[in-house]
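note to self: dont lose this again. the chain is below, predicted strucutre after it. 423 aa total, dont forget to put it in the shared folder this time
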Amino acid sequence: MPDTVAERIKMRGGLVAEWNEAFVTRSFPALGRGQVFLDNAGGSQVAQQVGDRITQYLFSANVQLGASYAASVKAADMVHQGRNALATLLNAERAEEVVMGATTTQLFDQLARALVQTWAPGDEVIVTNFDHEANIGPWKKLAKDGIVLREWSMRPGAHLPDLEDLAALLTDRTRLVAVTHASNIYGTINPIRAIADLVHEAGALLCVDGVAFAPHRAVDVQTLGADFYAFSVYKVYGTHFSALYGRYDLLLASGNINHSFFPNDKVPQKLEPGNANYELAYSCVGVIDYLEALAQAHGINSEGRAAVEAAFGLVADHEETLSRQLLSYLKGRPDVKIIGATEADQALRVPTVSFVIDGSSSREVVEQVDPIGIGIRYGDFYSRKLVDDLELPNGDGVIRVSAVHYNTIQEIDRLIDVLENLR
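---
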């Protein structure tokens, strides 16, 4: 397997310069100030282009939408540009398929409250024991409405779910299956297309949590076959904002959780009570700006969706190099247990690596790393059911190192040196 981004792209028939670390670092003002950010699964740093878009909105069109005067018309257009940018990131067919909000947890809760209006007591929803609570809790709340919850569990010792286990849970009363695209503990990528085909064959809908996947790969809801898909923009180089994709016909058929006088065909606003944050919506255009610039910095002159796919191709290649460096070290330590796939292959995992060290407290390991200026983390990361079911020997969860493309091999090596000195 070739070792560099340029070599891998050359194998695919492309022409590109070596990974442009200087451009990437320059694009994130928070970098290079002494702190190494390896807790990116909790939230990424913000690209310069995103901040520029916020400033542009606040200082040119910071008014309420819906009026006829020029500034309000401009503000509405800018917010719509933000929705279009999110549709581009998701490869949605139309901007109206994007519901905007503050967090993925909030958006899944809003979706559950809208969908349950069209369901009946005795209908069933399947959740997992390996998801973030964001895609479990909102569905469990529907038990008060008579919805029956079933659990799809990871088999002991596995880090990928078994589709036969899902098939055994599906019935003619199954209305929806909720599952993560990539685990924020395992780092492994679940086979969403195969899951979607199985779920749709049973006549149910699929709701995917893409939070741990979207910072690392181009999301394509059409190819995946997802009916609903959400991710957090603040983990994809943007601000504290989130987006939920829903197939237009499904959003149109869902219940209204906005004001009672909202017409039921007002999609997606009927799922956005109180409106989304305007300047943060517009800032999503800056995420596209950054991805276009990243592609161009590597000799790929494209725009929009093509640039998104090209940029994330570069990202995946560089991140695989980071994963390989860390996993190779961890696999060489007999006292370390990696939680998830031990291979660095970008088709199998993202660079979110969790592990425990025999005889060591995860908390104490992380706290010894903190003073060095390297930010990693320990705990269950709101995937509490998963971590509990792992029955780890310590009581404080896993150590998690979550890289993204702006991290460097030098930073991974620095972390490895620190971990080695703690032995």
